[in-house]
Specification:
- Helices cover 92% and strands 0% of the residues.
- It is built from three helices and no strands.
- Helix 1 runs antiparallel to helix 2.
């Protein structure tokens, strides 16, 4: 009788760990899907934003060229604006890029699922 209880306990423990492993795999797949979809969304936003910035700066160059009378001066002003924007992003990279990404990933993987 004692041997039967151990077999049943072993069988139940094996079933429990099998179910826990399946749950872990499903949770990992779900979180990976959220992470990859967020990455794809950011990539699409960056691509569309790049095209938008291109057209905005083309229009800015056209306006400045007509106001200044020279195209190269307008292009230099637009390049200076872009370099200034780049310096601002570089100066605040932690607040603009690192912290939001770290917060998103830590919230995704470290917050327990209470659904």
């Amino acid at each position: 009788m004692n041997e039967i209880d151990y077999k049943k306990l072993f069988t139940e423990a094996r079933r429990f760990f099998s179910l826990e492993w399946d749950y872990t795999k499903l949770t990992a797949v779900e979180k990976l899907a959220v992470l990859l979809s967020a990455t794809a969304f950011v990539a699409v936003v960056i691509i569309i934003g790049t095209y938008a910035m291109h057209y905005i700066f083309s229009a800015l160059i056209s306006v400045l060229a007509s106001a200044l009378g020279c195209v190269w001066g307008a292009q230099l002003i637009a390049a200076a604006i872009l370099l200034l924007l780049l310096l601002v992003v570089f100066a605040f990279k932690r607040q603009l890029i690192v912290d939001p990404v770290a917060r998103f990933v830590s919230k995704l993987f470290l917050t327990p699922d209470d659904k």
